[in-house]
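Whiteboard transcription, Tuesday session. T.W. wrote the C-alpha cells on the left side:
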C-alpha cells in the first residue's frame, strides 16, 4: 500500500466501528470484510478483547487497514500501536493522546464537535478530524456551517451515521469518510452472523461507489 493511511481511508469512503467481545471472532471478521470489498476495521477499546483482536487482524490480514477507537489515554494508544493499529480515533480531543500519536508517526483523528476544539486540533497540525456525535450535533448542516470559516479541515463523521444518511455525508466535500457501528453490529458478532455483516458491508461499499463514482463522473 503506497497511499498514506488518510488517503486509503478517503478511497474507502466508509469503515466499520467494531465492538468485539471475543477476540477469536477477529479472523472470521477480517475474512468477511475483505470478501465484502471493505478492507478496513476500527476496533474500539470498549472491551477486554480489543487489543488481541487488533493484533489478530493486523498480523493475519496485511491487506486490511486496522485502526483503534475509543482511545482515551496514552497507555491505550501505546497498546493499540504495539498490537498493529495504523490509525487512532478518540471520542474527544485529548492533547496528550494527540501528541503521543504524532510522536509515533501514527495517524490520529481526535473527536471534535465545536469550533474551539477544531482550532485546538489545527494548532497541532491536524487537518482531518473525527466529527462526533455527528447526528446529535446536526449532521451535514452543522458541518457545512462550521466549514465556512474553517474550510481547511476535513471530517470523519461518526455517531448516528447509517446506510440511509451515508450519501448525504459523502456528498459534502469536507467529509473524508464515514464510520459507524451499523456495518458490524455488536449483536451480529455475538451471533457469529458473518453473512449478515458481509451483506451490510457490501451495501455500504455500493453506496460509496455510487456517490463518489457519480462525483468523479461529473
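and on the right, the sequence the group agreed on:
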Amino acid at each position: 500500500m503506497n497511499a498514506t493511511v488518510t488517503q486509503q481511508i478517503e478511497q474507502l469512503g466508509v469503515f466499520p466501528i467494531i465492538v468485539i467481545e471475543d477476540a477469536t471472532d477477529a479472523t472470521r471478521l477480517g475474512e468477511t470484510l475483505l470478501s465484502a470489498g471493505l478492507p478496513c476495521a476500527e476496533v474500539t477499546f470498549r472491551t477486554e478483547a480489543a487489543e488481541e483482536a487488533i493484533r489478530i487482524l493486523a498480523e493475519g490480514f496485511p491487506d486490511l487497514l486496522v485502526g483503534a477507537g475509543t482511545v482515551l489515554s496514552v497507555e491505550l494508544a501505546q497498546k493499540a500501536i504495539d498490537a498493529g493499529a495504523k490509525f487512532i480515533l478518540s471520542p474527544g480531543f485529548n492533547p496528550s493522546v494527540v501528541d503521543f500519536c504524532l510522536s509515533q508517526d501514527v495517524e490520529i483523528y481526535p473527536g471534535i464537535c465545536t469550533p474551539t476544539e477544531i482550532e485546538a486540533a489545527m494548532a497541532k497540525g491536524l487537518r482531518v478530524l473525527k466529527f462526533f456525535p455527528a447526528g446529535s450535533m446536526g449532521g451535514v448542516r452543522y458541518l457545512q456551517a462550521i466549514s465556512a470559516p474553517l474550510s481547511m479541515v476535513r471530517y470523519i463523521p461518526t455517531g448516528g451515521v447509517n446506510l440511509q444518511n451515508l450519501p448525504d455525508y459523502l456528498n459534502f466535500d469536507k467529509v473524508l469518510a464515514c464510520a459507524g457501528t451499523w456495518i458490524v453490529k455488536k449483536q451480529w458478532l455475538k451471533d457469529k452472523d458473518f453473512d449478515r455483516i458481509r451483506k451490510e458491508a457490501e451495501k455500504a461499499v455500493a453506496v460509496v461507489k455510487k456517490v463518489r463514482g457519480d462525483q468523479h463522473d461529473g
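Someone added at the bottom: The two ends are 28 Å apart (CA to CA).
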